[in-house]
Structures are given as C-alpha cells and as structure tokens.
Specification:
The chain is 77% helix and 0% strand. It is an all-alpha fold. The structure holds zinc ion.
C-alpha cells in the first residue's frame, strides 16, 4: 500500500508528465488517490489542464492565421533553398 502513497512533489511531477504521455496504471491510481485527499495537488492539476487547453488553442490559432510566423527569416531562406534544391533534383531525375 505504501508505494501507492505519493508525496505532493511526486504527484505534481507525474501529473505534468501525464499530460504528455501515458503513465503506468499504478501511478495513475496513486495520483487519483492523492488527488482525492490533497486539495493542493488537485488544484495544481486543474490549473495545469486549463493552461494546456489555453496553450493548445493558442497554438492552433497561430497556425491558422500565419503558418510560418515563428520562423526566422534565415530559416525561411533555408527552407526555400532546400525546396529549390529538391526541385532541381526532380528535374535531373526526370531527364534520366
Ligand atoms: Zn498533494
């Protein structure tokens, strides 16, 4: 039973991990039990979840409006060049 009891530090860490990947069953149960008893951690989890939701909708929003907004001019130039190189290669292959 003892290994089911996680500390607040462990729980908050695992909660944020669980946002990105699936946790083992015993960890999820342990978190769930802890959250039932610990207001601090359940609030932390709620805040984290709403934060993630905001971030995700924000990311989608940006993507829809301007797909390359986050690329620096250098990166854009590099992509343009690599695209041109690909075109050249396709041309060469076609001739062969
Ligand atoms: Zn806690």
């Amino acid at each position: 039973m003892k290994h089911w009891m996680f500390s607040c530090k462990e729980v908050t860490q695992m909660v944020s991990e669980s946002m990105d990947r699936d946790l083992p069953r015993y960890q999820r149960i342990g978190i769930w039990i802890h959250l039932m008893m610990c207001k601090f951690c359940s609030r932390y989890r709620q805040q984290l979840m709403s934060l993630r939701k905001v971030l995700r909708s924000q990311a989608l929003h940006d993507e829809n409006n301007e797909p390359h907004a986050k690329l620096s001019p250098e990166a854009r130039e590099r992509i343009k060049k690599s695209l041109q190189r690909n075109d050249l290669e396709t041309e060469t292959t076609k001739d062969l």
